Amino acid sequence: MGDFITIFVLIKPKRNIMKRNIALGIAFCSSLFVWGQGENAAQTSATPEALSQKVEKFGTAIPQEKVFLHIDNTCYFVGDTIWYKAYVTRSDRQTLTDLSKILYVELLTPDGYLVERQQVEMPDGTGHGAFTLTDSLYAGYYELRAYTRWMLNFGQYEHPHSKWSELMFYFKSMAKDFFRDYDKIYSRVFPVFDQPQTPGDYVKDMTLRPMRRYFKSDKGKPKLDLRFYPEGGDIVEGTTGRVAFEANTEEGKHIDIELSIQDKNGKEIARTKSTNRGRGIFTLPDIPAGEKYKAVFRYEGYDYTYALPEPEKEGCAMAVVQKGKVVNASIQSSGLPDPKPILGLQVMHNGVSKAYYDIKLDDGGKATVEIPSDQLPTGVNQFTLFDGKGRVYADRLIFVNHHEYDTPQLTVDGVKAQYEPFEPISLQLQLTNPTTGTPNVSLAIRDHATDELTYDNGNILTEMLLGSELKGFVENPGYYFEADDSIRRQALDLLMMVQGWRRYSWKTMSGVEPMTVQHMPEQLQTISGCVNRIEDFRLAYGTYVKEENWLPGTGTMRAPDTSVERDATIEDIMEAADHPNQENNGLESGNTTDNNPLTQMLQDNQRDPFTTGSIMSNLKEEVNVWPTFIQGNQTMDLMQTTENGMFYMKTPLLYDKYILFLPAADKDKGEDYIKDKMKKDFTNEEAYPDYFVKLNRFNPLFPKPYSYYQDAPRYDADERFDSQGGQTSFTDRQLATITVRTKRGGLRKLDLSKPALVVDAYEAFNLTADYGMSTGTHNWVTFPQQVALTYIGDMGMDRDYFLQVRYDGKPINLKSTRKNVAPQRMLNGTQIEIPPVITAGEGKMEAYRHLRNLDKLYIYTDYAPREQGSSRYKGDNQPDVIIDYRLFPNDGYQPTYRDRRYVLDGYAVCEDFYSPDYSQKPLPDTKDYRRTLYWVPNVKFDAAGKATVNLYNNSKPTVLSIQAEGITTTGTPIVWNSKN
To answer: Pairing mode, if any, of strands 628-631 and 634-637?
Structure first.
């Protein structure tokens, strides 16, 4: 790494169009952007058009970001490397983002445990990296997820948890931060198979992590999940409405059924069948008052009855149908007061308003709007019907396709049907429209023999147009674009109708519901956190402290030696959208630089703020924070004074791991005091610091459960191994389909051969402190409970897992030295085997009580956080969690400190993909078992839009699979694969 550079600079504020100084990092309305004042704000709007204008401004001023990851292969084996390229776009333009410059990419195990998190440098809206599937990992379906910090402002909700877990935190706000979750984070799931026993013998065996329990499927009547989705949102009395439905097994597998829709007297009103992926649709004509409908059907010999949602007495039904070049929106109302209110119909695409219509109902309470389809962009369009008070009467998604993406943006020539061992390969890539600027394209070339079909097979086109707009997982999204026929159009419309979630909340965008923006787009690396008085935490130790007992802190920090006024709110950004050219936002006439207010704030100030209102500080007076950054022989010391108990500062430019010391002291104590403190008790972990300093931890903690199709093998015999030829294995054996192996036999001893995860003890301590479970000093009594909640999580039910602590593999009985066995544990009358207990006195245990002696924590469990709340953890099926303390070998130890000391990650460093050179004929016994033959994250095109790729085959006859992904400078996705 090069020399450290000082990031802090004097920022001269510019006057913005409201004659206010806008600076990034300011305390936006109690340290937050706050947009809207709830329902009362809508009461003063008076007209739907006024609300629509707010939505229009919001969509352009506060764009969202979307992520897509292109990976080098369709499956992996333990020991492989996963190569990825990230593309991040902004919703208002669909071009690569210029907002965020940092992306977070995470690798999670099939059970939902974090393997690794990487911070990816993203100067132009793209970045790339790699994960190694180390030998210590087990097989299964792994997940990659990716997000920017700006994305975490949207779709927040409270993760399910039991109330007892909140007692683990000192402040309620800390618990709220810990249990914050998100509706939509980019996710990609792929299979990882066992490491080949013989090099090159890629047998697709998948040995799952051993569990203590084997859960059998329930016998008897299958449990089904049948859900109804009225078009527009409600079934309304006095109208005719369409209702979509989706039928799945309890596990989420689609089923085909035939429904009889009956009224409360048992009369059949409609009969329908599921047509695609368990989905179908039926019509309820002339819905009478007080009616109650039910769906009756038979499945696998059993009868089922499900009630439909009860009709609303007052409201609107909206049907949206595409007919040729026109989109027709038909509105029916019932129960609305006379005179009928004027309604508004707004159409959005990617959160940007594309059309607005005043809706005047006729005497029958009906209205029809015809919208030329060429006014609506290709992709998901959202129709929202509302009144001037902000009440949403109906909401509907439709998919519009103008087929402008049907034309390939890239061609690949020179591909042979088969390549001989070590044969040179030369491919020519050509952009179809090179005049639009140099695109960003990544390319993967692999051995077709080990390709694996999965349902998670989206590309950048399907993700940006479809998957990113819908909640949950869309299996095999390419199906909807394979042909433009009535079957696929109907299937796509059904997919739109069964979505109850909206990426872009109209009520939030209109200000009807308030929005809190806690994060600004990251432009540079930063650290932020808060400082607390340690004596107050000592008094409150082990108790639940209500927020109102402390003086809550607000605001965020300015950089040293800068003087920037901090008086802007989110309304400033919204107001700036009204006058994008007034005063040119400080730009010279004719300057084409982006005038988006949010972008302009980032460009003008070159600051990277992070604010959050729920961080608590109990300081009575401000203090100085003295961070020290260490990497190799490089050291940098900084100082910053807190504001309302909080600090925020840029860091040096950092790659890979570095050490951070983070003490705090009174403002009247200078650098000499800090140096003196480092001479006395600096490495005494039991000494209390002057102040308790904690970093902000903002990364999402909780994995989403897999849908049935995310971790289900896909068996399409006509696609798995086609007739393209080529040798399927390096060992001349035919590769079989997936074999999943796991032990059977009900309840058994917890397998301790492979832990669920292994964590650094010091890192675990830092996390528990930063989440608010400790005071920054190690307490061996409560540490196991803190570690369990941090890494295992909360079961989301009114019970807990069985927690046991072990010490280098064995439990220790401190209460009595008269017994040499542990108490017997019984479950349903069955004795459960427990390892022998070491009888030890206090002296034997002393080493385990000090953080300096602890190397790793081995965590064993038969609990999967991805399956939180599952019925398999109810009744007698209480999971086990074992935390095994491992000391440093040979009586070794590590330095531990009085003040906070971290080992943190800077930008991830990614090595180049290795491509061997066989221009000199290899020796006869040379073996090359590569499955990914070539990976380049950024293809270099010349001025004519041409690029040539040269590589060599592996050591067997091979058919190529080629996948190119990318995006043009104008935002058009680029996709090319071997099927093209």
So the answer is: antiparallel
Helices (H), ranges, 441-589: 460-465, 486-497, 506-509, 534-539, 570-576
CB-count exposure of residue 845 (10 Å: 0-12, 13-18, 19+): middle
Structure tokens at 559: 């950089």
With a CB cutoff of 8 Å and minimum separation 6, the contacts of 589 are none
Distance CA 954, CA 931 (A): 8
Rounded-to-integer distance, Cα 383 and Cα 236, Å: 18
Residues 897, 904: Cα–Cα separation, whole Å: 16
Residue 589 has pLDDT above 90, yes or no: no
Residue 78 to residues 140, 204, 453, Cα–Cα distance (Å):
10, 11, 18
- Over its C-alpha atoms, the chain yields an Rg (Å, rounded) of 30
- Is residue 333 within 8 Å of 365, Cβ to Cβ? yes
Buried-state track 42-56, b at ≥16 Cβ within 10 A, e below 16: beebeebeebbbbbb
Cα separation, 576 vs 579, whole angstroms: 5
Higher-confidence position of 619 and 464: 464
Q: What is the pLDDT of residue 246?
A: 98
Higher pLDDT, 72 or 170: 72
Q: Which are the contacts of 965, defined by CB distance < 8 A and separation ≥ 6?
A: 68, 70, 85, 87, 441, 442, 459, 460, 973, 974, 975
State percent of the chain over pLDDT 90: 66
Asked if residues 646 and 679 have their Cβ atoms less than 8 Å apart, the reply is no
Residue 948 backbone phi and psi in degrees, to 5: -120, 135
Q: Cβ of 215: how many Cβ atoms within 10 Å?
A: 12
Summarised one tens digit per residue, pLDDT across range 12-50 is 223 332 223 323 332 333 334 556 655 455 555 569 999
SS (HEC) of 853-887:
HEEEEEEEECCCHHHCCCHHHCCCCCCEEEEEEEE
Could you report how far apart the first and last alpha carbons of the chain are, in Å?
A: 43
Gap between the Cα atoms of 570 and 585, Å rounded: 17
CB 976, CB 432: distance < 8 Å: no
Place of tokens 């920037």: 564
Per-residue tokens: 87: 């593309």
Q: Kindly provide the b/e burial profile for residues 655-690, where b requires at least 16 CB atoms within 10 angstroms of the residue's own CB.
A: beebebbbbbbeeebeeebbeebbeeebeebeebbb
Q: What are phi and psi of 359, to 5 degrees?
A: -110, 115
Return the structure tokens found at 956. 């067997």
Q: The sheet that has 241-249: what strands, in order across it?
A: 224-230, 241-249, 279-284
- Residue 972's pLDDT is 94
Average pLDDT for the chain: 84
Say if strands 932-936 and 440-447 run parallel, antiparallel, or are unpaired.
antiparallel
Token output for 920: 């000199």
What is the separation of C-alpha 228 from the centre of its chain, rounded to a whole number of angstroms?
Answer: 27
**Over the stretch 904-950, which tens digit does the pLDDT of each residue have?**
999 999 999 999 999 998 998 999 999 999 999 999 999 999 999 99
> In this structure, what are the phi and psi dihedrals at residue 158, rounded to the nearest 5 degrees?
-90, 125
Q: In what order do the strands lie in the sheet with 623-625?
A: 640-641, 623-625, 664-666
Judged by average pLDDT, the poorest of 166-175, 210-219, 475-484 is 210-219
Considering the entire predicted model, what is its pTM? 0.88
pLDDT score for 833: 42
The answer for residues whose C-beta is within 8 angstroms of residue 103's C-beta and 6 or more apart is 67, 86, 88, 119, 120, 122, 127, 146, 147, 148
The pLDDT, as a whole number, for residue 1 is 42
Q: Examine the pLDDT at 700 and tell me if it is beyond 60.
A: yes
Kind plus residue range of the DSSP H or E element containing 147: strand 140-147
Angle between helices 783-791 and 761-770 (to 10 degrees): 80
